[in-house]
Amino acid sequence: MAVRATVSRFPIDADAQEASGLPWGLTVTPFAAKDENGIGPAYGSNGHLLPRCENCYAYFNTYCELDQWAWNCSLCGTLNGLPSDAIARYSNPQSIAEMSSSFIDLELPLDASEEEMTQARPVYVAAIDISSSEEFLELTKSALLAALEALSPGSLFGLATFSHKIGLYDVQGPIPVVKNVFIPPDAESSLPLELEDAMPLLQFLAPVKTCKDRIAAALETLRPITSWERSSGAAQGLDSVLMGGRGFGTAMEALFNYLGSEFGNTFALARVFAFLSGPPDYGRGQLDTSRYGEQYASKRVDADRALLPEQTPFYKDIATIAVQSGVCVDVFAVTNEYTDLASLKFLSIESGGSLFLYSSTDDSTLPQDMFRMLNRPYAFNCVLRLRTSTEFKPLHSFGHFFADPQYENLQHIICCDSYATYAYDFEFADNTGFSRHSGEQPVVQIAFQYSVVVPPEGLPNSEMSSSSRGKHTLQRRLRIRTMNFGTAKNINEIYDSVDHEVVLSLLVHKVILVSLEDGVREGRALLHDWLVILTTQYNDAFQLVQYKNGNKSMSSQIDITFSQCPQLEPLPRLVFALLRNPLLRFHEEGVHPDYRIYLQCLFSVLEPSSLHCGIYPALMSYSTPDKQAYPRHSLSRAALITSGSPIFFLDAYSTLIVFYSSTADSSLPFPPPQDCLLRKTINKVKQERSITPKLMFIRGGQDDASAFENYLIEEQDVDGSGFASAMGFVSFLDDISQSVAEHMK
Q: Average of pLDDT values for 454-477?
């Protein structure tokens, strides 16, 4: 469980927090195997015996004062009696996880019987759009064949297709058999037949161990639905079949209900992989894609605001059914046409799944992403709870979860991998703030209760992977991290303790929320105004603006680059880059609304360092493929020219580019050899990513270098087309400086 705060020394009270101009909060990656310093938890058992505070329900931890019979809660100060069994256990503290570490992971007892525990088989269902092209189906087959290699033999796998009908495959016999259920074309009608009646669920879900080859054979039989088939469907009385044929909504709703009948019996978690080649245009949940082509400018309507909200609550509603059925949905959209991901995204983000968007089948990393996703550890049926000491409290929570309807600050996560990150911001409970004189420090406790599936012979706790071999057993665990933070005596101490990457994370979450509610313009305005306020507060704090005759002299130099505080220096560049990012670029600049939604979903789950790469890519240089020259450059042409280095490596999170300058010595090997330092760096970066980055090699002066040059944003106008101009980062700083001067008048 990695936890990073915006400031490691908390503001002393609300006035100090406001005066700093900084967001106050933290990010947490609950299922990360280690903390932010690379240290793992202390493992133990009997999590249900861990004492809890009678007042605030916090868990006993190493920061609590303990005597023979009682303990003081480190969060609220309440004195709690110790039960007799705890007194006996704590008499030998060396063997007790919660006595040795503030980061613990304890096994919990299961309510289920032993027989039910061994029935916790992982279930995977592929739902494939066959209202598509041959290329799309070939890519999907490749992805699913990769997935089969990552699945453990004890898993169950179901294959379904959708178009104007739902196809269910039985692969447990000698040849694949498909049963079809036709979808009513209108948006109100339900299926004429329950899927369970068409094919019993346990006939549909095939054991991977014995049916792997048959599943692969069934995949090879998939063909796109033809116009002839649609016409024959129309001849049977199914009107309007020729007009559409992608009954995605009806298919998803029916599959969730189908799987829900065995939730808690055959499986503890089912994952549905939905492969989509275009917008749903048939049956329930069909979407009107004509809104993308409307002329919003002539209607005086903000296109960015009009295209970001969902147009129907249907997918949010069936995401609730998925959650109740124990189903996590991963949506893989392979399309360059408008598909309205703004409506579809709820299927994945509310069920704990992922949303992937690929603009074409040609260079898609779908098979690699699929294998990578299934080959890493994941937890399910998770509950996340953040508690704080009494002086402050969580204000907002951000991430892909759903809030508990009854309890505050309690989040449910259906499926959580080791990369998934969530964020919180804080506010003071009252005007008092933290004590300036007592030795008590602010405390945060994060509790994460989760389930994993492990083989009965037992895996090391650090290796609970979906690729475990053998039979499966359900295990419930409780992971707790308790942290105390210092308080800052003055604003300088706050600024000196800033983690700019976590500040960026909270800003991105807030900007996404404002964009969804009020449009992209408002999101941009919020970001601009925040930087102006921060710069003003910083200049005030360091008394950098001189006074003349009782008035602040605007002729004095405003420090716009935070030269007195290295921790704040990266922030103007990060804000500039965020304003240049497609997340906040305008519709008229050619930003596809589906791509914007995809970025919102991606950026909302990235841990801070990865998000930093996605917003402001890392650019480093090499003098040879085996020798690094500089570890970090600004994203400008001037930086490239002045460095004099022949080779550059750019890491933009989802894209990696190796660029050889046009002046590079022809004797330098191109592309870099496999055993060189640069290749090792690239391979390490690829291995650590949650998605498969696209790798490009470009030779300046010979190849088209635009893919690389587009990332050199510092000479690009923050509001313009992105072409190099006299505008850019320097001009942006001038604009901020003028705004600060106005603000200080």
A: 58
Between CA 537 and CA 148 the distance in angstroms is: 56
- Phi, psi (5° rounding) for residue 216? -60, -40
Dist. CA 335–CA 267, nearest whole Å? 32
- Rounded (10°) angle between helices 520-541 and 500-518: 140
- What amino acid is encoded at 354 in this protein? S
Cα distance between residue 189 and residue 546, in whole Å? 72
Contacts of 65 (CB under 8 A, 6+ apart): 71, 72, 74
Residue 463, Cβ density class (10 Å: 0-12 exposed, 13-18 middle, ≥19 buried): exposed
Q: Based on C-alpha coordinates, what's the Rg of the chain?
A: 28
Q: Which two tokens stand for residue 522?
A: 């408002």
User: Per-residue pLDDT for 239 more than 50?
Assistant: no
CA–centroid distance for 429 within its chain: 30
309 alpha-carbon distance from chain centroid: 19
For the cut 60, the answer to whether the pLDDT of residue 234 exceeds it is: no
How is residue 669 written in tokens? 């090997």
Check: CB of residue 594 under 8 Å from CB of residue 357.
Answer: yes
Residue predicted with more confidence, 543 or 214 = 214
Question: Using DSSP, how many helices (H) and how many strands (E) does the chain show?
Answer: 24, 31
Q: Which residues are CB-neighbours of 186 under 8 A, at least 6 positions away?
A: 283
pLDDT tens, 321-367?
998 888 999 999 999 889 999 999 999 988 888 999 998 888 889 99
State residue 243's pLDDT score. Answer: 45
pTM across the whole model: 0.89
**And the tokens for 152?**
């453990």
**pLDDT greater than 60 at residue 721:** no
Please state the φ and ψ torsions of residue 158, each to the nearest 5 degrees: -120, 140
Number of neighbours of residue 215 by Cβ within 10 angstroms: 24
CA distance 662 to 299: 48
Q: What are phi and psi of 649, to 5 degrees?
A: -120, 120
Q: Express the helix, strand and coil content of the chain in percent, nearest 5 each.
A: 35, 25, 40
pLDDT digits (tens, 9 = 90+) for 634-691: 998 888 888 889 999 999 999 999 999 988 888 899 989 999 999 999 999 998 898 9
The rounded distance, in Å, linking the Cα atoms of 494 and 490 is 7
Total residues found in the chain within this entry: 745
CA angle 715, 718, 722 (to 5 degrees): 60
